[in-house]
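Forwarding the complex inputs:
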Amino acid sequence: MGASQTRTEKYQDLADKTGFSLEQIENLHKRFQRLSDNEETIRNQHPKEVGSCEEIGFEQFLMVMSHFRPPSLKTTEEEKEAMRKEKLRFLFNMHDTGNDGTITLVEYRKVVEELLSKSGDIEQETVKAMADAAMLEVASTNVPHMAPDEFYEGITFEHFEQILKGLEMETKMYIRFLDVETPTLSCGNSTS
Amino acid sequence: MQRCRYVHLWLLGSVLPICLISGVTSVNGDVALLHQESHLKPLSEFKSNLNQTEQDNGSRVITGISIVTFKWNHVKTPYLVALWILVAVLAKLVIESLPSFVTNVIPESALLIAFGWILGGIIWAADLQQTFSLTPRVFFYFLLPQIILDAGYSMPNKLFFTNLGGILLYAILGTVWCAATLGLSLWGCQAGGAMGALDIGLLQYLLFGSLIAAVDPVAVLAVFEQVHVNEVLFIMVFGESLLNDGVTVVLFNVFDAFVKLGGPGINAVEIIKGIISFFIVAFGGSLVGLAFGLLVALLSKYTKNIQIIEPGFIFVLGYLSYLTADMLSLSAILSVTFCGVSSQKYLNSNMAESSVNTVRYVMKVFANGSETIIFVFLGISAIDKTIWVWNTGFILLTLLFILVYRFIGTFIQTWWLNQYRLVPIALIDQLIMSYGGLRGAVAYGLAAMLDDQRIKEKKLMIGTTLIVVYFTVILQGLTMKPFVTWLKVKRAAVAEVTLVEKVQNKVFEHSLVAIEDISGQIGDNYLRGKWKIFEEKWMSRFLLTSEARKKQDYIFNVFHQLNLKDAVGYVDEGERRGSLEFVRNESAFIDFKKKFGDEFSEVMPDIMAAASDDPDAMRRNPVSSVSLQMHEKTMQGMRETEDIDAHHLLQQHLYKGRKQHLHRYSRNHFDINTDDNEVQEIFQRTMRNRLESFKSAKMGLAPAKTITKHTKKDQQQKMPNGKSTDTSKNYYANNEGFEFSEGASGLEASGGSFPFRVNYRAGAGIENPTFMPDQDPMAPTQIPPWQAEDEPDGSTVSPSQRAQVRLPWTPTNLRRLAPLRISNQSTDSFAQADTPASQEKDKKWPPPPPPPSDK
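Prediction (whole assembly, two chains):
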């Protein structure tokens, strides 16, 4: 990791970029190293799965984490709005596995499926029905008067924003990053 | 039917407490809720009286002089109780019927208290003495439990537990702070000579402080329910008021014990014991409640066969948990709160839907009723000359300190809390929270419990408590709403449940848990995630029935709710149009009314026209009649036969899906029939049916019958068609087409688009010769009234859409049909639905739209 001098500089740099405090970065770095077995990067352990990224470095790791940084008391309304948009974008990209700018029905179904099917009590077709109903909801809110020969391709980011307008984001996309290191229990590599 | 049940339960419920109260009042004459001193007699006398009247009665019957005897003493107590309940409920009725500008401005609780004053004044004027008052026993045993149970049971659990830290802080520290500062300040003021000579020591002041410190859930709920503040603020105030009731009772008991011990008896050991007992009482009470809550949940798993009394369990066990905790001298209020909180989730999923509703209603009936009674009696209690020992200094200082310390306490605690909160509590919210510190009946009940042997100024304390209650409930309650509006407090959003949002919420939750996990933070989300896993793995398994587990999922619930709502909306829509037919037929067909509502407005007149064109439709003309009941009556005879016919047909000819999920009967179901065996079975059954009808046709069965049969089938068939255009989803038309031979042409038309079509085609190709001839001649004759109108206006409304409006479906066979409405279309329905192919198909599909005769 180089000399300590450059290291703090690097951290400072990251702190400016992400808004984390130095202590938080230190903590996250420790965590990162635990996850990566002291490597520079975390590798994708299931390379066959759909995922554009093969490995991520600490900086990227931090960037992802920074999406979940809570706003401070000083954040202005515009900043909050920007953060909100950013978070929505993050979420949108998470859904949009095809990376084509729309969440298609298939992609959406996959999301719903993964949310629900864990307990195993709900059948596949229910899941699909739900995804479809949700999709239709989106369609009907965004394109209220659809001509019969039109069809709804998928959720674009604008529509996505539109439907989640009423959603209170403040409580929902934030995590408190502690300054002190929490004793991480046995959630080691299995979680990566 | 359900209404009926509620009424029964309500009656039962209202009789029970009356009996209980009457039992109590007759045993403990001194704690009677409504003791009329002049009439009150010891039990023995009461009994002898009773015997006497009975004897009288007997002798009179023998002599035959009197048929009716007046047995007032026999029924006096329960009669009075019932009468007072009636009066209180009528008071509410009167208040609700006041002009809206009054009820909008003045909170209901304040009006009820005022009503109590008037009532008390009347009684006082008549009797010249105070005859009725709220006794602590009645209050704590018969009025309070149901309110708390209701509060706990309808607690928004998630919100409650996410803010639990803050709530506990306010409830425990806040209450202790208020009690201590008030007691000390008043003592200081007395020492400074501000209140004249009062015989109150420091301990007594602290006792008084502890009883008046707690914010009252009844009062808070009554006011805050009318002012829709944002949910975090609401849960903070509400949760605090609920929990600090427990705290204040505990505190009261501790100080009461100290007062009994007297000044010199108190040493460090006793104080430590007091503190320990405080925690034991509070947490012990919660644990007892938890145990009872889980017991109810467990019981509800097995109550399937006794659905009628199923809703009773929560009431009985909730009450028992209250009494048990009280028996063990633990906090009864906390106990019943947690009983409700812990059991609600499992109960709601375990019990039948009607039972869940029943519980909800009965809870509200009880809670609302007691609340009303409490407020009215708080008002009546004012008319008692004996409690009014006026001491301006004491009363005014109490009011002042209560307000000031509440504000100071809240601000300090919130400041501290905000260091740790993700979303800090805003200044305005803090103001409202402080201002919402309403005192209520709990304080009064506790004050009435004071021991006047040891506390010489009990009357002053009761009087002051009443004034504090009046002041906070009426003045603060009155100003709360303008205050909230003026300060622009964030209101609760009246959001509609949308599936997308719920799904997104869940996504948020999951991703938060994941991110916390990855980043190695053990935060709320991480813990919540672990708890969820634990709950899913263990709690649900033990406490939920297997069906309930399925329905447990949150998103699924919303989905279910939305479906229900759509269905209800649909029925409403039909009723609004004044057509029962529409309802009966349409209720089978649930769709997005938002999207297609406008289309229906176009469709409706056409239906009417078509119906009247039809020869058969004549008898259905009363369709447009406004009076549903009348309509039903006239229709009954005809419909009955038709229904039976239809039922029979449906049962005979429609394939019963294996997977009957009655709880999700709408919108779009896919893949149910993908099972190969099922397809086979459908095929075989259809073939058999066709063979039979073929035979019967050859045997020379009356052709008329075939035709009617046929039309009915056709109608069912059209519904899917309509659906396919409408929802762009359901294509189970395939099944039908498969079943009824004429579908073959439709299959040909759009066959290529779905894999399923191909599968079916083999079967569909075998056509029933008897059907086709029947049909073809029919086609030209029947089309005109309908299709002719149709063609000109073109594509706006396709025939099938109209057709769906006239399905002979009744709610009963809707159920049976539900699984059939599940389409086997799988992937991108939007795309397919709106492609020209399907349009074309729809036009070709119902080759001979049958006479809308059954309409």
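The beta strands of chain A are 41-43, 55-57, 102-103, 155-156.
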